[in-house]
Amino acid sequence: MSNSIFQHKQTAHCESGVISNLLGHQGLQISEPMAFGIGAGIFFGHLPFVKVNGVPGTTYRIWPGAIFQRVCKRLGVKMESEKFSTPEKGMLALDKAVAAGIPVGLQSSVYYLPYFPPSYRFHFNAHNLVVYGKQENQYLVSDPVMDTVTTIDPESLSQARFAKGFPAPKGKMYYPVHVPAKVSLEKPIQEGIAQACHFMLKVPLPMFGVKGIRFLAKRVANYATNPGDRKATLYLGNIIRMQEEIGTGGAGFRFLYAAFLQEASVVLKNDQLSKLAGELTQTGDLWRNFAFAAGRVCKSRSASDVSYKELSEMLMTCAASEEAFFRKLAQVKF
């Protein structure tokens, strides 16, 4: 274990940010985009049967924890990971690790983190942060989406770690126990790219990948039957919230993956990846335009200059753009 002072780096997304910061502390410098790409973090899913705060869930990234597992496996990092039956056991284990000078990754609910502005505090249970010390009964927190380190009181942290709902964090804590001194990134990059292409293009279920974007587009078109209906506004609002407010958001994940491809093009000496990075950035812009237009529809709550049909068409354009991109990426020769 490294005994050096923990270096906080602000990142775009919590899970890939925690990976970058924890591994960096152990001497393995890996950027956030590289962690996101090797972990094949880019994804899409619309889950009408999984309700988040009572409305269907939409995700623009792979499920929580998967990036971490994939990065560790591909880079040969061994992690200690635990969940707990009671808050008392969870906080005791955290205190023990922190007393030993080990920075610890935690899964938490955003709702109970008092350092977030009130407007950002809602019931989202898959937020990752690092606790790297304790001072005068306050835990020292490196939350990768914040620009600087902060503190949290034991009661709030315990509530955040043991929040009810889906997914229940159950006090999950994790930290590296073996980090190789040197790693080769070529094979992990190639495996990460192949896996991302598979998940975006070949998952047979209609709710996932490029098919999932089209699936959502059709559902949004159906919202038009009652455009002033509170349920339509609520559902549309949640799509935007999942895209723009939780962690990095949909467009942000596209920009993050584009940054990964830029880095990968240098490591693999492959100009094609750099060109594709530019194309994905344009797709990110399409998602941003959709969120902006959808936000206007939500705010007006009545007739708007943008219709649900037009929003559906914008999503179909996003789907076509992503399909073209991933088909080209899947054909890159290494």
Name the assembly state.
single chain
What's the order of the H and E elements? HHEEHEHEEEEHEHHHHHH
Question: Would you report the number of β strands?
Answer: 8
The helix tally amounts to: 11
Query: Poorly predicted ranges (pLDDT <50, ≥5 residues)?
Result: none
Pfam family, one: BtrH_N
Domain DUF4872: 155-329
InterPro entries: BtrH_N, DUF4872
Domain Butirosin biosynthesis protein H N-terminal: 13-144
Please explain how this structure is put together.
It contains 11 helices and 8 strands. The chain is α+β, with helices and mostly antiparallel strands. α7 packs antiparallel against α11. A hairpin with a 7-residue loop joins β6 and β7. The longest helix has 30 residues, at 271-300. The protein has helices at 14-25, 32-38, 66-75, 87-99, 154-161, 186-201, 209-223, 230-244, 249-267, 271-300, 308-330; strands at residues 42-52, 55-61, 78-82, 104-108, 127-135, 138-142, 150-152, 173-178. The strands form 2 sheets. The chain has a 6-stranded antiparallel β-sheet, sandwiched between helices. Helices cover 50% and strands 15% of the residues. The radius of gyration is 20 Å and the shape is globular. The chain has 2 domains: 14-30 and 78-178, Alpha-Beta Complex (Cathepsin B, Chain A), CATH 3.90.70.10; 186-330, no CATH class. InterPro entries: BtrH_N, DUF4872. It comes from Chitinophaga polysaccharea. Residues 13-144 form the Butirosin biosynthesis protein H N-terminal domain. Residues 155-329 form the DUF4872 domain. This is Butirosin biosynthesis protein H-like.
